[in-house]
């Protein structure tokens, strides 16, 4: 073969290799994303391989707009139109089955217009299905995207429904979904049971590092629910994955959780909800924008950037919320820019933000009088420590023993 032809073939092979490598850069940890092409959600595994779980049974479904397959088909419509499935009732968590309600808004019983099925609220007068709600149900499915943070209420809707299923001899099935902020990192204080509420019912840390299916197993055994539980697992999900690593389209699980960027900052930034500072509700970047009319944006951004926190930069920002705290009033503060999500420590960052505003503006800043900050952080001593001038490092050190104990328990329930 002529030398020029051999050289041309070698050049073509080299360019092809470069192209493939560039198209599959991996996740920065030496792990390629190519396997994500075979990724399947629990709902897809159910319908393709484990349909016998629901065939011939009356099925109730707890879901919201995130209950979709990888092609964005709604599980409500898929099950309703499946001749092999008898879908009898829907149950809506906070924000409702179709996601039309704002945070904390009461959702009443109604008939779903598209399917004609009854929709029972699990965020109204009752947060646990009553026997009457389960009269026509043999198996109760749960298919909702969680965000990996203790105070996100959907996991307690799941736990309460598991209790109801156990009490009424109903099977309970969790269709598993990814933890969008990965399944490796576990951080924050473990809840003190004296501060149990609907934003934290069980003694788990603020960032639990588990999928909803894994949490269901932990809740069921560690907190004596004892439901007849089945978890339909995902295929090819890996613990290091953030949501973007799955190649799934992100559907907002609630009105103020619009993007995957929001999920990354949420575990720490949401602590601002326990103060008189806006957490950015009523803006296009909730939990990424933080501020109040009394804050000097440049001063706060400079102070926080001087802390040299990993994976994050703070930009001085001003905004006017359209609703919630400081609605209609020009507020000043920061925008959180995560530069490296694998290095970013959301809870540590959130505490630094709260402490900085507390220290810089002592005459204007306040924790909410109803104790909501304590409900979010899961105890009363962190607020006291901030008020007493303790460092964030000292605060974090105080919760490490409980966190280490939880990590040991958690290992028993990991699926992936």
TrEMBL record:
Keyword Signal: yes
Record domain Peptidoglycan beta-N-acetylmuramidase NamZ C-terminal: where: 264-416
Domain Peptidoglycan beta-N-acetylmuramidase NamZ N-terminal: 59-260
GO MF, any single term: peptidoglycan beta-N-acetylmuramidase activity
Keywords assigned: Signal
UniProt signal peptide: 1-23
Source organism superkingdom: Bacteria
Protein name: Uncharacterized protein YbbC (DUF1343 family)
